Amino acid sequence: MGRSDNKHNDILCAAIREFCEKGMMATTMESIACRANVSKRTLYKHYPCKETLLDSVVTLLLERIEPLQKSHYDPNRPLLEQLRELGNKVLALVCDEDYLRLSRIVIIESMRSEREALRLNEKFSDCERGLHSWFANAAKAGALGNLSPMVGAAMFYGAIKEVAYWDQAISWKPMLGEKEARALINETCECFARAVAASQA
Amino acid sequence: MGRSDNKHNDILCAAIREFCEKGMMATTMESIACRANVSKRTLYKHYPCKETLLDSVVTLLLERIEPLQKSHYDPNRPLLEQLRELGNKVLALVCDEDYLRLSRIVIIESMRSEREALRLNEKFSDCERGLHSWFANAAKAGALGNLSPMVGAAMFYGAIKEVAYWDQAISWKPMLGEKEARALINETCECFARAVAASQA
DNA sequence: GATAAAGTATACGATATCGTGTACTTTATT
DNA sequence: AATAAAGTACACGATATCGTATACTTTATC
């Protein structure tokens, strides 16, 4: 690993920290360079502008979260058990400090401009794609009764995110405690399973 | 209505449009003044800074949305009927162009800084308070079975917002069509009602 | 230890925006 | 028509940030 690679890495780390702490627009190229112990000129040699740097940061942080994406519906396991697993996965994703910080940046940029939304959200929504496919497959296997996978997923994710994510991301409430989190997942899963069972009867 | 009041009104209208079109930070005092056909000096006489102006804009726009806040649980009417009504109310709120634009601004500012979140979100979350109280009262009356009002509200709102709001606010998807909207409300309400009924049996 | 690649320090020019100061003009009121 | 309040035009000074140019220094490699 040459000197250049080292600097490059330092820059990325500094950029992550700066972006997460101050958000995209409040972060200056100068402050990133400073934090990375790198001259501004070097920074600009590695990244021609802030946008490019943000893209790299988003990509990098998404990799950390990637393991959470995979979820496969298994017709041979009880629904409630799988729901619990899924719920815990969503919760883990959404309660991850990295995810919270990163998603704030992405959401702000996406809401600010449609162009940015297209560029960033594409990568970002991959996070949820795996989780959505579980519902699609469960529905295909007839495990959701007459409930459509779209509404099913919306109710399930929506509930968890409403309590465990948006309140933190927007209102800066403290992260859900262990006990509250468990209660949320339990109740959501049970309620959901009951609704499905009732629609199948 | 004196000349001053007229100008004041022009400023507010211009500020609403500018903020909604460009968001808080991309909007300059100059552009607001220009759009209001007012000199910058006059603008500063009415509002000492951008933040103050934003507060007024938020307050003003919230008043338009206020009617949507009131929802009262009625123990003598069927649950499903009330749920439908509630769902349509949420949908109407969330599909309102003013609400979409305003909420974008508020959310961006809230996510950007905890201080702003405290200042703005307080006013803003009133929107949902009335809707939340419905669930609290329904639960108190025993109409939700063993489902907690918090999780109930989260599932119900969460589902609708997930599909009818966040996709628009973040990913700039088109507003839900008449037909899709009706399907969403129907399915959500029925699913919810089934879950409640099953838990009461 | 010479050479080239990479990095640094520093100072630019170009913008953009903020909020204010000043002297002049319009409007309403008596 | 005189007076005062409100508004205007315009030009500041103060910052802040961008991205680049230039001349010097460090580091790796032969």
UniProtKB/TrEMBL annotation, chains A, B:
One annotated GO molecular function: transcription cis-regulatory region binding
Keyword DNA-binding: yes
Domain HTH tetR-type: start-end pairs: 5-65
DNA-binding region(s) in UniProt: 28-47
Pfam families registered for this protein in UniProt: TetR_C_7, TetR_N
InterPro entries, sorted: Homeodomain-like_sf (IPR009057), HTH-type_TetR-like_transc_reg (IPR050109), HTH_TetR (IPR001647), TetR_C_Proteobacteria (IPR039536)
UniProtKB keywords: DNA-binding
Record-given protein name: TetR/AcrR family transcriptional regulator
